[in-house]
Design goal:
It is a single chain. This protein is an alpha/beta fold and 293 residues long. The chain has two domains: 179 residues, Rossmann fold; 88 residues, no CATH class. The strands form four sheets. It has a six-stranded parallel sheet, sandwiched between helices. A three-stranded mixed sheet has the order 8-10-12. Strands 7-11 form a two-stranded parallel sheet. Helix 2 links the parallel strand 2 and strand 3. The relative contact order is 0.14. The model has no long low-confidence stretch (mean pLDDT 97).
Length: 293
C-alpha cells in the first residue's frame, strides 16, 4: 500500500526529521507550510522529496485539499492555544472532511494523562485537544516520549553542569525519568504513521534514568563528581510554580516563560511510563549517556 502522510510542523526540527524518516520508509510525504516560513527550509524539504503546500491553519478549504488521499496526518506543531487547540482543530476538521482515517496529534511529551489540570500549561492545551479529537470519528494515536534528551544539555537543575549539581525532590532519588532523542522519536513516529493498527496511546523512552544514576553518568562523561541536591517536595515545588506564574501574567502569552520551564521539571518528577511500547517497531534506541556524548 502506498502511504501518503501529511505532516504539519515540518519546518521544525522534529517535523523535518520525521519527513526524512517517512521518506526512508517509502512513504509519499506532503507538508503544509506557512508562507512566512523560511524559504531555505521549504526548499530543503522539496529537495529531499517532500511536496510542500503553502497554507495557513485558518484556511479550511486549502487544508482539506491538502488532506485528499492522505492515509495519516501527523502534527508536530508547537505553540499556544491558537496552534495546539484552534489550529489543530482546523486540521482535524479538514482531515475528517477529506476522509483521512488516522491522526497523530502533537503530543510528544510526558504522559499528561497522569497529570492534573494546571500542572503544566502546555500539556493542558494538549488535554483540551485530546477531548476534541476523542469525540470525532477518526483513529487518533498519541505518542508520549517523556522529555527530549537534549534538554539535559541546557544546564537545567536536573543536570547543572556549571555547578556540577543534580537536583532531585524528596523521595525521588531513584525516580525514573523518561528521555528520548529527537531522532528516535521521529523514527518511531514514522513507523507508527505507517501502521494502521496503532492504539490510542504509545509510550516510549530511549532511556529511563534516575537522579542517582545521573551522578554515575556524569562521572563517566565529565570525569567529575556531581553533587545531589535535594530541593524539597514536589508538592512545595508546585506551590512555588503557581506563585511565580501568578506574579508573571505576561508569561501566559509566551511559549516558554520561566514558570513553564519549571512545570516541565515538575512533570518529569510527577509522571513516568510504567511500561514501554519500544518493541513495537524494530529500532535501535540511543541511551541518555550516548546522546549526551
Amino acid at each position: 500500500m502506498n502511504h501518503v502522510i501529511l505532516v504539519a510542523g515540518a519546518t521544525g526540527e522534529l517535523g523535518g526529521k520525521l519527513c526524512m524518516e517517512l521518506l526512508n520508509r517509502g512513504a509519499t510525504v506532503r507538508a503544509i507550510v506557512r508562507a512566512a516560513s523560511k524559504e531555505t527550509t521549504k526548499a530543503h524539504l522539496r529537495k529531499i522529496g517532500v511536496t510542500t503546500i503553502e497554507t495557513e491553519l485558518s484556511d479550511l478549504r486549502s487544508l482539506t485539499a491538502a488532506c485528499d488521499g492522505v492515509s495519516c496526518v501527523v502534527s508536530t506543531l508547537a505553540g499556544l492555544h491558537d496552534v495546539i487547540v484552534t489550529g489543530q482543530s482546523q486540521l482535524l476538521q479538514a482531515a475528517i472532511a477529506a476522509g483521512v482515517p488516522r491522526f497523530i496529534p502533537s503530543d510528544f511529551c510526558t504522559d499528561y494523562t497522569q497529570l492534573q489540570v494546571g500542572a503544566n500549561r502546555n500539556f493542558d492545551l494538549r488535554k483540551t485537544f485530546q477531548s476534541i479529537i476523542d469525540e470525532r470519528n477518526i483513529q487518533a494515536t498519541s505518542i508520549f516520549n517523556g522529555a527530549f534528551t537534549h534538554v539535559l544539555k541546557y544546564g537545567i537543575p536536573l543536570l547543572n553542569t556549571n555547578d556540577q549539581q543534580i537536583a532531585y525532590y524528596t523521595g525521588k532519588l531513584d525516580w525514573k525519568i523518561d528521555f528520548t532523542t529527537l531522532d528516535d522519536t521521529a523514527a518511531y513516529t514514522a513507523a507508527a504513521a505507517l501502521d494502521n493498527a496503532t492504539p490510542r496511546y504509545l509510550r516510549i523512552a530511549g532511556g529511563q534514568v534516575s537522579p542517582r544514576e545521573l551522578v554515575a553518568i556524569s562521572k563517566r562523561l565529565f570525569g567529575k563528581d556531581f553533587q545531589l541536591t535535594e530541593q524539597g517536595t514536589v508538592e512545595d515545588f508546585a506551590l512555588y510554580i503557581k506563585k511565580v506564574r501568578e506574579e508573571q501574567p505576561q508569561g501566559e502569552h509566551e511559549l516558554y516563560p520561566s514558570w513553564q520551564q519549571m512545570q516541565y521539571l515538575y512533570s518529569m518528577f510527577s509522571a513516568h511510563h510504567a511500561t514501554l511500547d519500544n518493541d513495537r517497531y524494530p529500532l535501535s534506541w540511543q541511551s541518555v549517556e550516548d546522546a549526551l556524548k
